[in-house]
Specification:
With 185 residues, this protein is mostly beta strands. It has helices at 28-31, 93-102, 150-158, and strands spanning 5-6, 8-10, 19-23, 36-40, 44-48, 53-59, 70-74, 81-86, 113-118, 133-136, 164-168, 174-178. Strands 7-8-6-5-9-10 form a 6-stranded antiparallel β-sheet. A 4-stranded mixed β-sheet has the order 1-12-11-4, with no helix packed on it.
Length: 185
């Protein structure tokens, strides 16, 4: 899983917490109406490869990579290397084990893919969960009413409790935007 591009360019010369109304090159397809918008859950990303569970990890350029780390690429703007570390050595290992014990509704085995680990001890529990669980990204809630313009998305995201939106193109491309990318109205 590579770092997903943000729909709008970040203000790297000003307040980098926010985005500007310019579309990030390569993400124009979202504005053109392509792709399916899904809810971005607010937790931490984990992956099951069919054998092992992995936790998403970012490593700062001046820090050593953890043992077993599989690097996917380095962000040229931040210098952070994105990759996977074995979940059992991550800071979320205990909560991941708890989520696994609950299983995945309606399925006998965990399908390969990425999941969002959410719950009371993950990122302050913005999802309001009572217990730790894994939300499979492949079945994320579709947001058919999500707008695709800068102003429309700012208004929409500040009116909904979602962390953000991830668009999925038929050819595998993805693009995201978060509520916190926009200044509060």
């Amino acid at each position: 899983m590579k770092k997903v591009k943000t729909l709008f360019e970040r203000d790297w010369d000003g307040d980098r917490r926010y985005v500007l109304p310019q579309v990030t090159p390569g993400c124009e397809w979202v504005i053109d109406g392509e792709g399916i918008p899904t809810r971005k859950y607010d937790g931490t990303c984990v992956m099951f490869d069919g054998i092992f569970w992995w936790a998403r990890r970012e490593v700062k350029e001046d820090k050593p990579s953890p043992e077993g780390f599989v690097a996917l690429g380095t962000d040229p703007e931040t210098g952070k290397t994105v990759g996977w570390e074995p979940v059992e050595q991550s800071t979320f290992a205990k909560w991941h084990a708890e989520a696994l014990s609950h299983g995945l509704t309606g399925l006998r085995a965990w399908p390969d893919g990425t999941y969002e680990l959410i719950g009371p001890k993950v990122n302050g529990n913005p999802e309001g969960e009572q217990e730790h669980r894994l939300q499979w990204h492949a079945i994320a809630e579709v947001l058919d009413d999500a707008p695709r313009s800068f102003d429309g998305l700012a208004t929409y995201l500040h009116a909904h409790p979602y962390e953000g939106i991830v668009w999925h193109h038929d050819d595998g491309r993805m693009c995201k935007i978060k509520r916190r990318d926009f200044r509060a109205p």
